[in-house]
């Protein structure tokens, strides 16, 4: 389909990323998969390539752009190759917006140069073992010391993508009790140095999919966080989190669309080469009809993802629109990838084939960033229901 979201700069970036993936990722990806994470030094390579600095101001070593279109190209190219860049997506899509929105000039000078090079990888620690989507119910606390120089952090987080390799983690913690009028009041954000005493990484979680993306449990026992590492104002963390949810949900939506497009590509290639009953699987009418239906769904998802991308870049993507895009694109990807795996037959169930890994990777899209049920609630509320 004809698209208008990308220009020559984006396509030049696409060529660079595609060549980088073929040279640096594809040959070693099976090793990453077996290890359950991308190696730490890979992030330095992404830093050298300029991936982390696209949306970082020039004064801190970045390119000074303000767009998500290069991230969109990354989603398409990693999906196309059947690979994943580990926790680097969280570093850029989730952590950077908080730094840009909340950090003081002094903090930006400390954080961003190392962010750009990959010297300091960032993650976001929001979810707790007992709370899930109920962010306001978190139990992790940060209490200001008597001398006012630091906070004392205690608690635990789980499902933290990039948590194993992270050098700094934006931790959400309660600095005050919830108010009678608003249980979301009292949460604050901290840029916590993972080398701090009392900070520990628990299990590296064994997930169904996203095997090369490290996901961890984190624990904090009397961790001293300097007041200079408070992000934004005290007690307003919940509202900061809400401000960045549309961009996070766009990312999941666009990534899901890209996975669906890749699934069709993998299936089309497989059925053209695979012979059954003396002729290629692609010659059977059922194969043609299945792939045609999948392509139609991918075309629709692409249109939705692109529209959300344009709205996001214009600063106009509403929470309801982001929820709608996430709901639609992730549900489409679920259907398309399942049908494309079916066309692979038994080989579709083997992890040596990218469709099998894609099937497992895709499943979490309807859970993280807000479940499909939460997305429906947001959309229904925007409808006045």
TrEMBL record:
The residue ranges of the Acyl-CoA dehydrogenase/oxidase C-terminal domain are: 235-383
Acyl-CoA dehydrogenase/oxidase N-terminal domain segment(s): 7-119
What InterPro entries does the annotation carry? Acyl-CoA_DH_CS (IPR006089), Acyl-CoA_Oxase/DH_mid-dom (IPR006091), Acyl-CoA_Oxase/DH_mid-dom_sf (IPR046373), AcylCo_DH-like_C (IPR036250), AcylCo_DH/oxidase_C (IPR009075), AcylCoA_DH/ox_N (IPR013786), AcylCoA_DH/ox_N_sf (IPR037069), AcylCoA_DH/oxidase_NM_dom_sf (IPR009100)
Q: Sorted alphabetically, which Gene3D superfamilies does this protein's record hold?
A: Acyl-CoA dehydrogenase/oxidase, N-terminal domain (1.10.540.10), Butyryl-CoA Dehydrogenase, subunit A, domain 2 (2.40.110.10), Butyryl-CoA Dehydrogenase, subunit A, domain 3 (1.20.140.10)
Q: For this UniProt record, give its keywords in alphabetical order, as a comma-separated list.
A: FAD, Flavoprotein, Oxidoreductase
| Cofactors demanded by this protein | FAD
Q: Where in the numbering of this chain does the Acyl-CoA oxidase/dehydrogenase middle domain appear?
A: 123-223
Plastid listed as a keyword: no
The UniProt family comment states:
Belongs to the acyl-CoA dehydrogenase family.
> Which protein is depicted?
Acyl-CoA dehydrogenase family protein
Per the UniProt record, the lineage of the source organism begins with: Bacteria, Bacillati, Actinomycetota, Actinomycetes, Kitasatosporales
């Amino acid at each position: 389909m004809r698209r208008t979201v990308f220009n020559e700069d984006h396509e030049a970036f696409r060529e660079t990323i595609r060549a980088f993936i073929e040279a640096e990722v594809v040959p070693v990806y099976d090793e990453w998969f077996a290890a359950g994470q991308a190696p730490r030094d890979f992030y330095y390579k992404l830093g050298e390539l300029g991936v982390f600095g696209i949306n970082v101001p020039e004064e801190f070593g970045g390119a000074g752009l303000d767009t998500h279109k290069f991230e969109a190209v990354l989603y398409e190219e990693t999906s196309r190759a059947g690979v994943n860049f580990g926790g680097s997506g969280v570093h850029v899509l989730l952590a950077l917006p908080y730094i840009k929105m909340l950090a003081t000039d002094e903090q930006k000078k400390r954080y961003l140069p190392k962010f750009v090079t990959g010297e300091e990888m960032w993650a976001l620690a929001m979810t707790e073992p007992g709370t899930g989507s109920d962010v306001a119910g978190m139990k992790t606390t940060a209490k200001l010391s008597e001398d006012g120089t630091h906070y004392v952090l205690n608690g635990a987080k789980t499902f933290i993508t990039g948590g194993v390799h992270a050098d700094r983690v934006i931790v959400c913690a309660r600095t005050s009790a919830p108010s009678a009028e608003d249980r979301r009041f009292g949460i604050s954000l901290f840029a916590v140095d993972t080398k701090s005493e009392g900070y520990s990484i628990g299990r590296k979680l064994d997930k169904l999919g996203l095997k090369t993306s490290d996901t961890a449990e984190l624990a904090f026992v009397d961790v001293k966080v300097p007041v200079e590492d408070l992000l934004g104002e005290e007690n307003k963390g919940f509202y900061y989190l809400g401000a960045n949810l549309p961009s996070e949900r766009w990312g999941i939506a666009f990534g899901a669309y890209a996975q669906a497009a890749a699934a069709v590509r993998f299936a089309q290639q497989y059925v053209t080469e695979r012979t059954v009953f003396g002729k290629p699987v692609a010659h059977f009418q059922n194969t043609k009809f299945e792939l045609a239906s999948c392509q139609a769904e991918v075309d629709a998802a692409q249109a939705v993802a692109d529209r959300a991308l344009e709205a996001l870049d214009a600063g106009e993507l509403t929470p309801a629109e982001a929820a709608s895009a996430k709901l639609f694109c992730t549900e489409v990807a679920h259907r398309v990838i399942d049908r494309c795996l079916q066309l692979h037959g038994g080989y579709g169930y083997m992890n040596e084939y990218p469709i099998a890994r894609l099937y497992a990777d895709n499943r979490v899209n309807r859970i993280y960033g807000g479940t499909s049920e939460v997305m429906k609630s947001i959309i229904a509320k925007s409808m006045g229901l």
